Amino acid sequence: MGDNRIAVVVADDDPAVREALADLIDSHPDLELVGLAINHEQAVRAAVDHRPQVVIMDVHMPRGDAPGSVRAIRDQVPEARVVALSAHGERETVLNMLAVGASGYLVKGTPAEEILEAIIRAARDQFSMSAELLADCAEPLRRAERASWRFEDLVGNRLEDSYLELLGHAPCGVLVVGPRGRIEYANAHVRQMFGYGSAELRDKRLRDLVPERYRTASEQLIGRVFTTPSAMSGRRRDGSEFPAQFSGGHLQGRQPRGVVFIADLSQLRAAESRFRQLIESSPDAMLIVDTGGRIQAANHRTEALFGYDRDHLIGRAVEALLPDQPLTVSLREWDDSLEEPVGHSMELVGRRSDAKQFPADVSISPLRTEEGLLTVLTIRDITEVQRAQFVLERSLELLEVTDRDRQALLSHLVHAQEAERGRIAADIHDDTIQVITAASLRLQQLRRRLRDPDEQRVMDKLDETLKLSLSRLRQLIFDLRPSSLEHGCLAGALRGLLEQIRTETGVTYRLEDRLTAHPPAETMALIYRTAQEALVNVRKHAHAKTVHVQLLGLDDGCLVRIVDDGEGYNPLEVESRPGHLGLSLIQERAQIAGGWCRIESEPGSGTTVEFWVPLGTPPDAP
């Protein structure tokens, strides 16, 4: 190997492309081909064995994946640089390759001179990328930069004032304490709670608002990032005390300041009385249980349901009423928990005083008190409910079977169609694109040997024709198998389709994605193909200037609305003509999915296509 020549390894699973790249490298005086590989595993091995300066590698090869191969090459041969070459140019694939250290990314069909230049630049540790890929990958960064700038401009110097304004509307008392422990701000609740005016509170300390016995505890609240609420007493201006709950925090701003939240608990006893009345008036049995599973209180409905006197129940374990079940385990999960517990329901079996059992719906709700965490159990006899549910389930059985059959048919049809499209796209990528790429490389090598200007012009036209073929084939692969749809992004797939229509026809578009649910794969494919059929009609027949596409969540389903400002037509007249199958396909796809379709149009008024399909998860395809 010459001292000044760049050593190159070529990795491509297509023989024609691999040999064309090898001949191209051999024809350059500054490059030397030192190895060939037909899969990812061989690419890594060739890089380790020959230690080249550059590896030019096809992204989609068997026995491994491209990001993993780049990592392995960079780890074992640090001086080697990798240039990716692929028939695909999806943003996700490009960014993944660049993230693991690729020094370039070229689309197959790139002129031979650019491929050679990318190899030479990679050896100099310089980056190369096809222009259209660079523009596509840079757009999210530009949007993020603009969003960040707007955010900083909006909240920069006004953040502290916004916090104070927000605290002023808090439903409890709020104090802001400065760095030296002096009160700088008190909202209206604090002034009413303690009987001071704003000027009187300024420069006081928090310890001046509590009795002597709580002064140390009050000082510990100031300046903390967060403290759990503490039960103490507040001292009013006239010297009287009242029960209160204090908690502290930290206020963001230009200088460190503490914030103290104060809640007056004077009304707690009245609230407790109302709570007891609520329990007694409940139509269901209600129990209050401590964390040890002991009954602390019971209402009169509990006596009627279980046949026990409530005095007999106080202090007994709740297992006496709900035996041999995981209730106490659920209660203990809340004990000493730092997080706020959330209630839930369980279906258990209750046992009356005469030992008879019944199905019970038990709602379990946490209740924090000064004495600790308690649990409120609401118990309802659901014997009649279960009996009615059994009858209803049997009545719906036939409808469920019919719906499963329909969903299975839909899933099978969509699965078969998408599988066939994927097979055709793979065949185009693995065969046709590879052959045309190899032919383009051969043609460019031949052109460099020609000296006659007329012959060179003929070769240039032939090269442009091959490039156009590659472009159309890549577009066909996208139409057959959109990458965004494979990644579960319905809006992204539709945006790619609309962008293609805009490029081809100049029709501008607006896409609104207000669909919050994530459709199953078969349903997503059906929605995309149905919308694609409608948009093809817009491209071919509407002569529109704009098209508006909406994805909306409606009644546990997806509503798609496509509105164009084109020439419009008479639906009854057009649908009766032979050869106009697009509208029928849109309606049939929606109906077989259990949905509906509506098409409105008239000459000179544009066209509106709406279809709705349910988003229930279909069964697995047979």
TrEMBL record:
Q: Which PROSITE patterns match?
A: PAC, PAS, RESPONSE_REGULATORY
Q: Which residues carry this modification: 4-aspartylphosphate?
A: D58
Q: How does it sit in the membrane?
A: Multi-pass membrane protein
Cross-referenced CDD domains: HATPase_UhpB-NarQ-NarX-like, PAS, REC_NarL-like
List keywords of the entry alphabetically.
Cell membrane, Kinase, Membrane, Phosphoprotein, Transferase, Transmembrane, Transmembrane helix, Two-component regulatory system
Q: Which residues form the PAS domain?
A: 159-229, 271-324
Q: Where would you find this protein in the cell?
A: Cell membrane
Task: List, alphabetically, the InterPro entries matched.
Answer: CheY-like_superfamily, HATPase_C_sf, HATPase_dom, NreC/VraR/RcsB-like_REC, PAS, PAS-assoc_C, PAS-like_dom_sf, Sensor_HK_TwoCompSys
SUPFAM superfamilies of this UniProt entry? ATPase domain of HSP90 chaperone/DNA topoisomerase II/histidine kinase (SSF55874), CheY-like (SSF52172), PYP-like sensor domain (PAS domain) (SSF55785)
Q: Which parts of the sequence belong to the PAC domain?
A: 344-394
Does Repeat show up as a keyword for this record? no
Q: Where are the transmembrane segments?
A: none
Report domain Response regulatory positions: 7-123
Q: Which PANTHER family match?
A: NITRATE/NITRITE SENSOR PROTEIN NARX-RELATED, SENSOR HISTIDINE KINASE NARS
In terms of NCBIfam families, this protein maps to: sensory_box
Q: What is this protein called?
A: PAS domain S-box protein
- In its UniProt entry, the species of origin is given as Streptomyces javensis
Taxonomic lineage: Bacteria, Bacillati, Actinomycetota, Actinomycetes, Kitasatosporales
